[in-house]
Amino acid sequence: MTERGFGKVWLVGAGPGEPDLITVRGQELLAEAEVVLFDALSHPGLLESCPQAEQIDVGKKYGERATPQADITELLIRLARAGKRVVRLKGGDPLVFARGSEEAIALHEAGIPFDIVPGITSPIGAAAFAGISLTHRDLSSSVTFITGSDQAGKEWSPEAWQKLATATGTICILMGMRRLDEITRAIIQGGRARTTPAAVVMWGGRPEQRTIVGTLDDIAELAQAAGLSSPSIVIVGEVVALRKTMSWYETKPLFGQRILVARPERQAARTCASIRRRGAQAIAVPALSIGPPPEPQRLRQAVLALGSYDWVVFTSANGVEATIAVIRELGKDPRLFGSARLAVIGEKTARALQALSLVADLVAPEYVAESLAERLLESTKAGDRLLLLRARQAREVLPDTLRAAGRGVDVVPAYETGAVTGQDLESLRRAVRDDVDVVLLTSSSMALAVASALGASAAAELAGVTVVSIGPVTSATCLELGIRVDVEAKVHTVDGALDALEDYMSSSEHQSPAK
User: Fold this and answer.
1) Domain ranges for the chain
2) For the domain with range 290-417, which CATH number is right: 2.60.120.620, 3.40.50.10090, 3.90.950.20, 2.60.40.3760?
3) SS3 (DSSP) at 36
4) Are residues 306 and 337 in contact, defined by beta-carbon separation less than 8 angstroms?
5) Which residues have CB under 8 Å from 422's CB, separation 6+?
6) Which of 45, 134, 268, 502 could form an S-S bond across to 263 if both were Cys, CB 3.0 to 4.6 Å?
7) For position 120, what pLDDT does the model report?
8) Alpha-carbon torsion 252, 257, 262, 267, what sign?
9) Rounded CA gap, 493 and 491, in Å?
């Protein structure tokens, strides 16, 4: 609580599209929030940044039942008076056609402390992602943002649009799709040339982005024919012609591709972020369930003996998290590791150790057991004792290789994987059949899990998408399952797999599988 006995509200701009377009300050506040009230245009991926917070959907969509603004404001005040740290997350910028000023005034009148954290407003973000500069030294020295929605209590009138027509260089219209035909006709009546370039950008800054370019005379008809609707930004002005040379987002090799990541969103956050940075849409649906190990007492005994080993080895973040849970259950701390050194596969597993403020001594760069075995053979000597904490069912190449070289290896299951059931199973099947263009397989166990979920028709159903394998081991598993692999990573990491997919999509030989 503050000194006044209240909590506090932060009005935070979420930015115009993908979650990494939020400001650093906004990201920090999400991580610290106790309650987050989010609207319909803030990217759902941002909620992964605040798992500790109560998350309340107060979004508004035209034509759909929504939380009244007065109720949102009252809720902000009530939560702050209860001593909560509240983030009001608003798409774009909180003060640009977002009613943030109304909320700020109400908070002030109620005596509630608040901060305003600006965000990239949607017309600026959508224009940039569409390759359109809103101003240009030779084409436009001014830009006007205007809402196309009706003001409460006032009937729509063309006069204001007619006056605006020649008073500014670039016109950016928010919330104008319902009246686009009327708006463009009014601008033409105001003296703007019918041939003035115009564009509509829907879902700007996201892989779902769609852009239509025409003229002031035909843009409404073109947008309707293309099925564009809200949320869209309409841009009118000579600057629209710059898109011919400035388009960058929609020309990415993976732009618009829907890529299945067969893990829960929480575990796949980094992978999903890498996918989004390439202009693709990440669809995270788990293919495996994670459960306790079959012999929990054996795991507890191994954890108590961590310090007796020369090396403790983890092959996944799940193993790290399971071990940390036991350490905390026993009321212990990182000192249990003693002088043991830590080895892991991949940066994701290394980051999981940060929960105990531990740093891995050895990180295998590639996501395969062979890579870790090679690095451990270089860093250990005959007679060293190693503890491998992993899934109950896993390939034996790592312990077998180390034992053959004279290292002592104890393998203790830290968790057990199983097939998903119920809603998760249906979500995975639906994703493969209807919702994705690409399936990214980052391990043999993932390939097996996806095949198991799809059942006897797995090979046939995966023939309708592009299958990407992280490396030859996973590809071999796919071959045994009768699954065709379209792309195999040369560098056996997630980024290596995405690089290979980009090369494949850019190749002249590429043809998308028929869905």
Assistant:
1) 8-120, 124-246, 258-287+420-506, 290-417
2) 3.40.50.10090
3) strand
4) yes
5) none
6) 268
7) 96
8) positive
9) 6
- Is the distance from CB of 414 to CB of 299 less than 8 angstroms? yes
User: Please, are residues 280 and 207 in contact by the beta-carbon 8 Å criterion?
Assistant: yes
pLDDT of residue 289: 85
Write down the pLDDT at residue 515.
54
290-417 has the same fold as 258-287+420-506: yes
SS (H, E, C) 260-286: EECCCCCCCHHHHHHHHHCCCEEEECC
DSSP per residue, 429-448? HHIIIII-SEEEE-SHHHHH
Q: What are phi and psi of 406, to 5 degrees?
A: 90, 10
Q: Name the nearest CA neighbour of 76 among 45, 113, 42.
A: 113
Q: In this structure, what token pair is assigned to residue 98? A: 């977002």
pLDDT at 1: 47
What does the angle CA 281 – CA 253 – CA 286 come to, to the nearest 5 degrees? 30
Q: What angle do CA 478, 479, 485 make, to 5 degrees?
A: 65
For the chain, 515 residues long, the average pLDDT of each consecutive 10-residue run is 72 94 96 95 90 91 73 96 97 93 96 97 96 96 90 76 95 95 97 98 95 98 96 97 96 96 82 93 90 93 96 93 94 94 90 89 86 93 95 89 95 89 89 93 89 89 94 93 95 93 83 55
Q: Which fold would CATH assign to domain 124-246?
A: 3.30.950
Catalytic residue numbers read: 39, 60
Q: At what angle do helices 422-430 and 444-454 cross, to 10 degrees?
A: 90
Q: What is the reported pLDDT for 128?
A: 97
CA distance 314 to 14: 36
CA–CA distance, 242 with 170 (Å, rounded to integer)? 13
- Judge whether 195 and 215 are in contact, CB under 8 Å: yes
Q: Report pLDDT for 9.
A: 98
The CATH number fitting domain 8-120, selected from 3.40.50.720, 3.30.230.10, 3.40.1010.10, 3.40.50.1970: 3.40.1010.10
